Structures
1.
Amino acid sequence: MRALFALFPADLSGADRVVPPTGFTARLTLLTAAAMAFLAVFALALSLATGRLAERWSEALARSATIRISAPAEQMQAQTRAVLEVLATTPGVATYRALEPAEMEALLEPWFGPDLPIDSLPLPQLIELTETSAGLDADGLRLRLSAEAPGAVLDDHTRWRRPLVAAAGRLRLLGLLSLVLIGGAMAGMITLAAQAALAANVQVIRVLRLVGARDAFIAGAFVRRFTARGLAGAGIGTALGMVAVAALPATDEAGGFLTGLGFAGAGWLWPLIIPPLAAAVAWLATRAASLRMLKGIR
Amino acid sequence: MIELQNVAMSYGGSELLSEMTLKLVPGSFHFLTGPSGAGKTTFLKLCYAELLPSAGHLALFGQDVRALGRDDIAGLRQKIGVVHQDCQFLDHLSVAENVALPLSVARRPVDTAELRELLGWVGLKAQAGALPPQLSGGERQRAALARAVMMSPDVILADEPTGNLDWEMSLRLLSLLVELNKMGKTVVIATHDLNLIRTAKSQVAARVLRIANRRLQLAGADL
């Protein structure tokens, strides 16, 4: 009697068992989900990195400004002094200082080479300033400078900052668009795999219909299987993607933009949403394919 | 329970069944006979709505099948046990799982003792864990009958259920169907086996229907 009991599986009502295991579609779904999740990790890393980059560039350039004084040699000292006095009484200015001749020489060296006779050149005087977190009124400062030092021009880096921030913003958008495209491609491939599985199991569906199975029961059996495969594949792909991102050279080692691609701090939690999202995509794609096919089988 | 009024069925433009009128009342027992290709299987398929009539009115349990959706028909099929001519199993599931399939589909718990008893009755206790392709033709038909009655349906439609069985097993299956009929189930058996019909008529008030010339006739007096 015990031997007979052993012949009966513990869960005879297990709805998922009605779908026979199909190696090809199982592997295809698993591989697709893993590959797409791997790519999604990189797209997410790109998106987050460009977001950080845009913020950093924007902040760094927004907090500094330069005043350039172009005046005849005999007025240069007086205008420089006048500018420094204006800055001392301007709200929102945290620090300011006139660049020394040696610093000016260092700035020009990349273009003109060393030993530049800086004294003999009619170079403008540069004054570097940083803003407080509250920021300064650039238009008001320009008005005061035009009154006190007519040769002084304030450059708050706006014309540099805007295109850089815009470029970083577009890169971030590109990353997000990549995520959407990856999700769409995954949905398409899982739909194809689900349709192949359904077509291969038409006879199974007919038998289930014969014994009174409703659409939701039949579709559910396929949907749960493909959702589980999508989740498992995406889990593997996400883990591999995170390892690959972690293995990229650190920013402080090389300093370039690309080496900054990665996650920072709590940003490492973001990739964890990829497997559930992939499972949701698989669920939707398989359910739509199943219900579409079941319409044709009475 | 199942009611046909002037039902016709056409395949590819030619009419296979026509002017079929019949009312299967609860507790009735019918045999369906007729030459091969007369349309017995098609008639049974109409009775569980795998096919829809091309003309006439067909109602299952008081509901017009044309007005029913797929899920409604699926729900009604849970009240109809079908023994298909070619059995139709899920080959990756064991015999026990196949027999219990109607319960799984209806999301009802499986009483393993009851399942064992049923398998024992059709002589398949030893094959409970086997896969359908491992069964002989007769064993497959017995398993199909066990699956059809597993849910204790209101109607049992059997298409040549004893075609591959020896006489002893045929009588056992007939006894099961007669017992179910005495419990109030409606039974329709399509068969060529006149001996089986004669034996059944000695046990139960069975009516014999014959499909000939595309029409349904009462043939009991001929037997």
Note: The longest strand of chain B covers residues 14-24.
2.
Amino acid sequence: MKATARLSPMTSHPGPAPVLDVDALLDDPEQRIIVCCGAGGVGKTTTSAAIALRAAERGRKVVVLTIDPARRLAQSMGIEALDNTPRPVPGVTGEGSLDAMMLDMKRTFDEVVESQASPEKAQQILSNPFYVAVSSSFAGTQEYMAMEKLGQLDKDARASGRWDLIVVDTPPSRSALDFLDAPERLSSFLDGRFMRLLLAPAKGPAKLMTAGFGLVTKAITTIIGGQTLTDMQAFVAAFDTLFGGFRARAQRTFELLQSPGTAFLVVAAPEPDALREAAYFVERLSAERMPLAGLVVNRASVDPDVELSAATATAGYEKLRDAADEPSRMAAGLLRLHADRKLVVEREGRLRTRFATAHPQVRTAVLPALPSDVHDLEGLRGIGELLAVRDARAEKRA
Amino acid sequence: MADFGDVQLHIVTGKGGTGKSTVAASLALALAARGKTVLLCEVEGRQGIAQLFDVAPLPYDERLVARATEHGHGDVYALAIDAESALLEYLAMYYRLGRAGKALDRFGVIDFATTIAPGVRDVLLTGKVYEAVQRNARHKNARVYDAVVLDAPPTGRITQFLNVNSELAGLAKVGPIKAQADTVMTLLTSKRTAVHLVTVLEEMPVQETVDGVAELHKAGLPVGGVIVNLVRPQDLDDDARAELLAGTADRTALRKALGKAGIDADDAVVDTLLAEGRDHAERRGLEDEQRTLVEGIGVPTYELPKLAGGADLGGLYELAEDLCEQGLA
């Protein structure tokens, strides 16, 4: 089953939200970066890939940075296993091109260290147990490294002209905001008093060992053990020279995100949690003066365009459900489906209206739910068409 | 008899979007319906419990969220655990750190330990859950729970989250944090714990569930059941679905049957119903493939329906009843 077969006319409520014109966004040559963000499980990665493909087939030179895509999605881009290097996606039609890659957070971190430190020093850092833990399992590292990679890609794109559009998927973090907070958290961590304290005994004279610090080291030693503290100090000391570089890079990426060439697409499912998360994100973007392109509501139910209410269908279902003959049982089953669908459409409509009322300026595109995951390029293409289909209909109405 | 009657700690995980928090809350209500006093915990700072039970955001303090309404039922309390509060409580409890404790905060160590130091955060979060499970009558004035339900991090991170021991290995080799991790691990790997996985019948969540179970087994963590959530209505049987897919359903007979129910269906209504039926049949076919995979995992499975109106408080009680009937609680 291909996603395109579901290209039936969409008849969902037009809703009060202004329409997001996806194609206009993709066709704008000033648009250099599109960031897809949203809570986990809303179909961010698939949406990013579909948008990247559509942009490429409309003539852009695109690279898409995915985070942990499903095997099937990687395969759908003709690449068995994506890795940290952008690789061309075969089968893209038209003048444009599409490269795809998957973030390898440890590899990216290692590369940063290697590029910033002398070989001996890099080796010293890479083998430190504290570094190994931070670079592979620390919950925020993926966000830091996604930002780092975005910065690198942007630099490459400008230098080589290989790409004119970068589409970024964001990590499946607890909250969509983690991605934005990563550089700030990194900076404040590196500037933290505790970090400076850890450094002090490694390089400074003994008089820096304040009474407060004595207490602190004693407490830390008590809690996590002396060896850990020693490892941490070694890590921090070795890392010290890199800090400035890290901070400057994080700051640059943050500024990049604020530039008018960047557009954020907030992806959500029509569920209270996902839309609440989207609302936080929209507010945060505006507070940070970051450019929001719009909201993509994924997996929406499509309103069956007939005069048969949920209440009538439910009543019919209840009359027929215990019937023995086949046609009645089928009728009962179909009425139940119809009633459920009507209810779901109503509920989703309410949720979307609530969002649109609170955020009337946010342009919205609605993607209908698909029966199966994307398996091939054709499926991704179908999603891209669905994203744009609303605009065509809106024009027709106008 | 409940399948996990002796389990004191139910850990509920699932991929994002599968409804793991809804299932965790329903399980808490189901256990309470069995007469247990239950504590429902969350650790991701999302205030999901408060939203589900429609109460004010939860502090770092156990709050009653569902009072027993029938004789023989138990109460459900809820707690939102955050690492910073857990660390300060832990320090106060075990070290009476006093000045040093305050200094830690002042020097940004609390912040450091809970956001940066890998693994420490998870030890603190699971440590608080451990404390709630281990509490007994010897603790003066403390509320004792018969069961604790943890709304845990998602499937992709659950083994790492629970396997605090190995996460710390190579980092904190000795010291109280390590000792604490060891104690917590003893509970987490025991028969008193069960890790349940929530999925929906779609490819990615099912694949993650299969992988998640394998990882949990490998780490020696006890796998409980798989809860298949958001299951579509099952009213249409195999024959009916085959006819709908093939487009051979008898329109005249269908229209007549609808007429019996008082619905005067014109062509447009019949077309819409048949199209909805065909879509449904198609999805059911795909779901059945996924169900076979879920059953192949080899652990007990439970199914919860998709509630058309969404999982509001009333919905939670419906789901809890389903869980009781199917024996998860």
Note: The first helix of chain B runs from residue 20 to 33.
